[in-house]
Amino acid sequence: MDLFPLQQDYIEESRYSYGDLDSATHTSILPFSVKDSELSESYFYRDTSLYYNLLAAKVFKDDLFSINEEDFVLRINPLFDFRGAKDLIDTSTYADTTLFIQNSRGFKMDGKIGKRLFFQTGFLENQSYLPSWQKTYADTNLVIPGMGRHKAYKDSGFDYSQSYGWVNYFPVKNINLFFGHGKMFSGHGYRSHLLSHQSFNFPHLKASVTLLKGKLKAMWSLAALQSLSRKPLGEVPESLFKKKSATFSSLSYLVGKRVELSVFETNIWKRYSEFSGTVPLNGLAYAPVPLLGYLTQRVDSLQSARIGFNGLLKISNRIQFYSQYQIETEGLQLGIRINELGIKGLRVQAEYNQANMVAEIDPMVSFSHLNEGLGHPVQDTFDEVFISVNYIKNRWLGKVSYSQVNSLADRKTLDVNAAYLVNAKTNLKIALGYLYRDQGQGGSSQSGLFYFGVKTSIFDSFYNF
User: Fold this and answer.
1) What is the pLDDT of residues 317-353, one digit of tens each?
2) Which is more confidently placed, 16 or 435?
3) Distances (CA, A) of 204 to 46, 114, 168, 270, 370
4) Cβ–Cβ under 8 Å, residues 435 and 449
5) Strand pairing of 259-270 and 303-314?
6) Do the beta carbons of residue 16 and residue 337 sit within 8 Å?
């Protein structure tokens, strides 16, 4: 592994580690690169036990298959998510007659060639029977949250797949080149108004450079996005979806050991017009110059631009404050992260988010990908309180998270779960939990989901919306 997965367990683990005052790492852009950070890969693989049985070692500690040479590493591991759930509150006929299941199978393969070239690829095939509010979202938006398009499976189920892959190259120590199919994240919090990993994977090219002895870091990325609106039917049996392009750029600066400040820019470039068909990509999109697109943006609906700011303040090795502001929607985030303050293994995070404006623009330059927003999952004016409490002891993990959103559709979500970490190589866990959700929208819709499962957790499931 070179890039830490954009999954909450890995994100939280690295966030708390980078919270030390001795850490001088830029943390406003995810995923983190192992080589480009102060963490070694072994940070997440801390099982020092000796296993004298090959099967036990494979289950609890090792990769399923691996080659570990000085200049070549290859590892292959299975991915799966087998869960069952029952809604104890929803009294609808659908909930009363449906056992909600998740059946995902796949693999991941990662490794390195030499000391500068890293690669990873993976695939998941999924069938799901979703709880009522998740099914409504999938039927309305035509996508599974964070997992892309779906098709019907039997009577009321969904069939969908997810693939990803990338190549990460360091030609020299302070320059990183990336090309792949995946996600990005901007910010220091649980949510992000600027760029989140809640939407589906997209192809993108990314380059970054660190200067001034590591204090300044610049990043630029060119991405291919698409809508779920189809072009006029031509000679092919099924018409293609209308596409758009995006450029993301950031500048971050470390002020001493305690402060990180960054500016983040997004440009969405129109690639299809109802009058002229395919629109050539503006030449400015190819210029890896932060803020160039925003400062020179067009006003003829061929481009939309957003800009925002991230801030991180380390009070001590245990306490961090962070913030984010996005100009176009007046999106504000304030948060605190506390690591093991008085109790070993206890981690607490509290966060407030709000947006005061909604941008009404051409869908072909909207801040979205496959019908899902690229920022916060609430695409409206809102305010939200999010609280998370985690406790870790050896292989046991306990977590309580709470989200309350006030918007056109108020909702509260409480998730309480306990898990046993079987194998840290793929974050394989056995988990038991209860998720309560209350949504008021001209009435009240409640759900109380009791769930149990076995999962290799390297992808996030986005259901607290």
Assistant:
1) 889 999 999 998 999 999 999 988 888 889 999 999 9
2) 435
3) 32, 24, 12, 16, 15
4) yes
5) antiparallel
6) yes
DSSP for 62-97 reads S-SEEEE-SSEEEEEEEEEEEEEEEESS--SHHHHH
Distance CA 77, CA 65 (A): 7
Bridge partners (DSSP) of residue 215 are: none
How many residues in total does the chain contain?
Answer: 465
Say how far apart CA 175 and CA 173 lie, in whole Å. Answer: 6
CATH of the domain spanning 8-456: 2.40.160.130
Q: Which distant-in-sequence residues (6+ apart) come within 8 Å of 379 by Cβ?
A: 358, 373
pLDDT at 32 over 90: no
For residues 194 and 302, give the distance between their C-alpha atoms in angstroms, rounded to a whole number: 20
Beta bridge partners of 82: 103, 454
**Spatial contact of 426 and 458, defined as CB atoms under 8 Å apart:** yes
Please report the pLDDT score of residue 98 as a whole number: 81
pTM: 0.91
The CA distances from residue 332 to 73, 194, 259, 274, 315, in Å, are 43, 10, 19, 35, 21
Give the separation between CA 415 and CA 397, rounded to whole angstroms: 14
Phi, psi dihedrals of residue 358, rounded to the nearest 5°:
-120, 125
- pLDDT above 70 covers a percentage of the chain that reads 93
Report angle CA 198, 44, 114 to the nearest 5 degrees: 95
Q: What percent of the chain shows pLDDT beyond 90?
A: 48
**Partner residues linked to 383 by β-bridges:** 354, 406
Give 61's contacts (C-beta < 8 A, 6+ positions apart): 47, 49, 51, 423, 424, 425
User: Hey, where are the domains in the chain?
Assistant: 8-456
Check: CB of residue 25 under 8 Å from CB of residue 18.
yes
Cis (ω within 30 of 0) for the bond into 203?
no
Q: How confident is the model at residue 237 (pLDDT cuts 50, 70, 90)?
A: low
